[in-house]
Write the structure tokens for this entry.
Amino acid sequence: MKIAIVGTGYVGLVSGACFAEMGVDVTCVDINVAKIEALKAGEVPIYEPNLETLVQRNVKSDRLHFSTDLASVLNDMDVVFLAVNTPSDKDGSADLRYVLEVARTIGQNMTKYLLVVTKSTVPVGTTAKVKAVISEELKKRGLNIEFDVASNPEFLKEGNAIADFMKPDRVVVGVESERAKKIMTRLYKPMQLNNFRVIYMDIPSAEMTKYAANAMLATRISFMNDIANLCERVGVDVNMVRKGIGSDSRIGNRFLFPGCGYGGSCFPKDVKALIKTAEQNGYELKVLKAVEEVNEKQKNILFEKFVNYYKGDVKGRKVALWGLAFKPETDDMRDAPSLVLIDSLLKAGCQIAVYDPIAMDECRRRIGDVVTYFQDMYATVLDADAIFHVTEWKEFRMPNWQVIKRLIKLDAVLIDGRNVFDKNELEGINYLRIG
């Protein structure tokens, strides 16, 4: 089987490399010439554990190809996946221009049956729009070529995307025809020989499932952050509460860790888009509006703790940030809590030292040299008035606290935005956490 994946961002590149690893002939298409040339040379523009090795191996094995011209490869394909970016518009809705541009190109150039699959995260009704655009372009050409559309949203966790793709909890596929269903079954069956976990449904339900899943996870995070903030005010240990409710089989223990807010490419954008979809259909998602509001406030909590600790006297103080990425095992800083914290610290007149194992180049690309970059966690804290633990990278879990105590100022404070550290092991360092 031959497939094309349009878009070599996070979803497109991971999907392409994984399909190729399963023996599918894959061509990844992107209009960015420099990116495609780099990929042909085995250079991966994003950080994801083991992705570079996977890309290089499948390029070498001639199963993974790259192109800037969809029209030139289109009619060699059985399936075309749309994995282009769907950024948030100014009003919070998903911007579909790139999705519909690809649909237009398909309709203008296809000469035989194709299955066109939306893999980008898109609002309900988008796949129907894709179908309409393709049909319109075929009509302009005076052609009546049969094609199908389907929806196949991704559920990949950054930092664990390859395992998620190869051994998924489930694969959601929205289809309209038996022919499309048979093609998608053939595509996914090799990676699920022992337990076929593809869930077939209608296309609108598949589109909604993606948004509903991310909205539920975002809700759990914001709920736990809200509870943590209350726990702090009434003298309760939120970690004990988390363990207590997480042991309930109806609730479970995942996504119940309090912290300094969620970020990344999915949760903030998808929550906004789902709220907007509701508004466009005459309904208000009050719970999700609260989820978003809590998250935006939570991104300020580390700065607030810092200001309160020093009773407002923070101008000129030196601070250290451990972690910049929105989560570990990625260099993604989209909507990262670290960016909100850095902005507040700069406005307060602080000197900022930062370290992240992977995301410092991405940080420099975003904000330049307004902060000072260091190559390890210890150099970052020299003479620091405060240490902010922002991203829970594994290398931050067991620092040498005796060394750190000698490096930081006498009355310095460690503000743990991920509740990782045990206060009893901190060698007398002043310690604040969430809840």
